[in-house]
Design a protein that fits this description.
By secondary structure, the protein is of the alpha/beta class. Helix content is 32%, strand content 27%. The strands form 6 sheets. A 6-stranded mixed beta sheet has the order 6-9-10-3-11-12, sandwiched between helices. A hairpin with a 2-residue loop joins strand 7 and strand 8. The chain starts with a helix and ends in a 7-residue tail after the last helix. The relative contact order is 0.11. The N terminus is likely disordered. It is a peripheral membrane protein. One of its GO terms (molecular function) is ATP binding. This is Sugar ABC transporter ATP-binding protein.
């Protein structure tokens, strides 16, 4: 593998020169200059709305610039669409999965560019090539497996395999690890190293800053549509990135103080949950946990540790095979999901696009979806009551929108996440469960979300959130519960050491 010096001197293969992009009166990009080097990783940092996705869409042919020039191998080029960009060897892996869940892995990989044989599609050859790709990605799955049957992390690997299948020489990765387990991230980083050795150029976008530093050769920071900094890996650190993204003196907050905590409102005792993928195994095994009103508890662990399964079981999903869950002393074993919501248990799911939002609905209707019964009188919906609640929730969770009647797709990822949280808060929960609440949102939006959780805890809400980011575990939590293979391996206070938390989870300390 090339060293930092070789990466810094690598030939520039793709340039964006003075790129400007207007959407009506909005200037998304303001004269950005950006370069990609052969056989190296250029990481693009920035908050949501900084212009990262817009720039990548221009480089991959999804959008065209208002002005400016794209230069490939020293020659100006124009990409009328993504097909034209792919013909030049440029592929993009988007943050939100674009797979067809009803189709097989094979059919997703070759969708729109099927391999033809004498009698039609050569499925045997497609199977062979798919199996080869999956083996390289270390995904043990049959090529004919429907994508909808895969876990989110496995689907992300299929998305990456599809991009690699076109033999791209410039590969853009937009949040490629957002749903990957730690072992899957290591596999991806190994693939990145192999691609670099073959001369492939990569553009990498991630909100996981420490993780991104592991693969970065060149770093570029965008802020409000302008480039604020660029440098080589040898000259930067985490503080450099954050300073140029959001300014000085930034942190994710601290555990809220100055309020009384109540007796436990949530009591989990000796809980075991069946693994849906391996029926004779418990994905959570003999776990006990109490959470008090006004307390923030963080569940830290790697993917597969049982964090998601525990939160979903409390909310009414998953098969509990032993133990009990009590809310305010009442046994929940036989209660439906709907009944648990009525009682005061709210869950913000890990995948907001799939499980938290309805993409065809407005911001307002997404906010009130779980609390619609509040506005019904004798079967009739009170629009006035609904509008009053929407106005209050938009203000309380600080959703940045000019009009709640706009589609949910008009919002950034961070504001969409606030809508999901607001939807759950509209049900007036006593305990708020959040599964990876910062997934796919930038560091500024992350701080806003964590500040919101701290404020609701001060008001007496019990908050439980899960994360695989150690910095997040050391932010607002009063207690950090570390899970490893379905069991609690350690418990820490807010003054814990990062290395101790990571070691308890079975994670090797790297950055």
């Amino acid at each position: 593998m090339r060293g930092a010096g070789a990466a810094a001197e690598a030939e520039v293969v793709l340039e964006a020169r003075d790129i400007v992009k207007h959407y009506g009166a909005t200037r998304a990009l303001k004269g950005v200059n950006f370069s990609v080097h052969r056989g190296s990783v250029t990481t693009l940092f920035g908050e949501n709305g900084a212009g990262k996705s817009t720039l990548m869409k221009i480089l991959s042919g999804v959008e065209q610039p208002t002005s400016g020039t794209i230069v490939l191998d020293g020659e100006p080029v124009t990409f009328a669409d993504t097909n034209r960009a792919r013909e030049h060897g440029i592929a993009i892996i988007h943050q939100e999965l674009s797979l067809a869940p009803n189709l097989s892995i094979r059919d997703n990989i070759f969708l729109g560019r099927e391999i033809s044989g004498p009698t039609g599609v050569d499925f045997a050859e497609e199977n062979r090539q798919t199996a080869e790709l999956l083996e390289g990605m270390r995904l043990d799955a049959d090529p004919t497996t429907p994508v909808g049957d895969l876990r989110v992390g496995q689907q992300q690997i299929v998305e990456i395999a599809r991009a690699l299948s076109i033999d791209a020489r410039i590969l853009i990765m937009d949040e490629p690890t957002s749903a990957l387990a730690a072992t899957e991230v290591e596999i991806l980083f190994g693939i990145i190293a192999d691609l670099k050795a073959r001369g492939v150029s990569l553009v990498y976008i991630s909100h996981h800053l420490e993780e991104a530093l592991r693969v970065t050769d060149h770093a570029v920071v965008l802020r409000d549509g302008s480039m604020t900094a660029r440098s080589t890996r040898a000259e930067i650190d985490l503080g450099w990135i954050v300073r140029h993204m959001v300014g000085e003196n930034f942190d994710l907050g601290s555990p809220p103080e100055g309020h009384e905590m109540t007796e436990p409102v949530l009591q989990v005792q000796n809980l075991s949950i069946r693994d849906p993928d391996v029926p004779d195994r418990a994905v959570v095994d003999d776990l006990s946990l109490d959470v008090r009103g006004g307390e923030i508890v963080c569940l830290y662990g790697l993917m597969g540790a049982g964090r998601t399964e525990l939160l979903e079981a409390v909310a009414g999903r998953g098969e509990v095979i032993a133990g009990s869950i009590r809310y305010r002393g009442e046994q929940l074993h036989d209660e439906s999901i709907g009944r648990r919501i009525e009682m005061g248990i709210g869950l913000v799911p890990e995948d907001r696009q799939r499980d938290g939002l309805v993409q065809t609905m407005s911001i307002a209707h997404n906010l009130t979806l779980a609390s619609i019964r509040q506005f019904l009188t004798r079967g009739l919906l009170s629009r006035r009551k609904e509008a009053t609640l929407v106005e209050r929730i938009v203000k309380d969770v600080t959703v940045k929108t000019s009009d709640p009647s706009l589609g949910i797709g008009s919002l950034s990822g961070g504001n969409q996440q606030k809508v999901v949280i607001g939807k759950v808060l509209a049900t007036v929960p006593g305990v708020l469960l959040l599964d990876e609440p910062s997934r796919g949102i930038d560091i500024g939006a992350k701080a806003e979300v964590f500040g919101l959780l701290a404020e609701y805890a001060r008001q007496g809400l019990a908050v439980v959130y899960s994360t695989s980011e150690v910095e997040e575990s050391l932010s607002i939590a009063h207690r950090i519960i570390v899970l490893h293979r379905g069991r609690i391996s350690a418990e820490f206070g807010p003054d814990a050491d990062k290395e101790d938390i990571m070691a308890a989870s079975g994670e090797s300390v790297t950055v």
